[in-house]
């Protein structure tokens, strides 16, 4: 009898062990959706490489995600660099849960299942939108209106491209044009963007959704010659100021100032940014590589971070994470935490006419004079514009170094 009891107990324990075995992500390509509102979902694609590695895919952009953990039948997917987190249950149909940004108290319903399509529609397009589009967001709201340049490529009913603004671009957009209806989306772990529009007679009328917390209308007309204002003339030193000054803390408890010995008699590139900002991430990747290849020259970089998280500890934690993930070796100072307000940023840098954009880059020559201020950043999604920016940047810095 004793032996029978032992056998039953062993079988029971084995059965319990089998039932509580961790569920993990299956390999393959997935179609995910974030719930924007009761009638709209924002789709994106990702590919699971292994139970601890996946790739988020937006057109030519591939985002490597390697911080994946499990708890019974749930998975926690931490986005690289950014605070965004997907928490979902795994079952036979796929994944169901939430996408969260805790410090902003934002979350969206999330689900995913095996699949390759992004937008589920195969209707033939009635137009081809390849080319440039002169765009206005919030056209009827005076204080909120701003201009942009749409840049698109269309192959059949598949569309890729982006919108460039005076402050940066809207990332790698991917979607479809079916009939005369345009749908584009992107998800990068920080921002979830959805664009919908009706296209008629070389005109677009549409709506832009940023997650489930913001939306605004836009209009666009086809215009191959349209260009945005010169990004080197939007931000400048106010009258009465001759140079840039600041003094902010670093993650080691020290205070860094432009008057420090490390910057003396050197060309200095000052980056105004935030760890939460995808355009800043693109810029930081490029600046980090450039700095490494020019480290022995009379050149220094320093970044000023404006963070929305509520505490200094969290802000420095995000700064350290960015530095580690990207491999940044130049200092990132904490200029502000608790808010990423540009109005408050102006209070920290009163010599500027305004902080119009994260990111903004200030070029200082060996004599400490501000020689140029570049507003925004044209990232990889802008194609030729990104290539042109790099060429201009490198030429200008090399010119300052040769003086």
Question: How would you portray this structure in words?
Answer:
By secondary structure, the protein is an alpha+beta fold. The chain folds into 3 domains: 94 residues, Lipocalin; 92 residues, Beta Barrel (Lipocalin), CATH 2.40.128; 155 residues, Glutaredoxin. It has 5 helices and 25 strands. The strands form 4 sheets. A 9-stranded antiparallel beta sheet has the order 4-3-2-1-9-8-7-6-5, with no helix packed on it. Strand 12 and strand 13 form a beta hairpin. It is globular, with a radius of gyration of 24 Å. About 1% of the residues have low confidence.
List the helices and strands and how they pair.
Blueprint: H1 2-19, E1 28-35, E2 41-50, E3 53-58, E4 61-65, E5 67-71, E6 74-78, E7 85-91, E8 94-101, E9 106-114, E10 131-137, E11 146-155, E12 158-165, E13 168-169, E14 173-178, E15 181-187, E16 192-200, E17 203-210, E18 214-222, E19 247-249, E20 255-257, E21 267-273, H2 278-293, E22 299-306, H3 312-326, E23 332-336, H4 342-348, E24 360-364, E25 370-375, H5 384-401
Parallel strand pairs: 21-22, 22-23
Antiparallel strand pairs: 1-2, 1-9, 2-3, 3-4, 5-6, 6-7, 7-8, 8-9, 10-11, 10-18, 11-12, 12-13, 12-14, 14-15, 15-16, 16-17, 17-18, 19-20, 21-24, 24-25
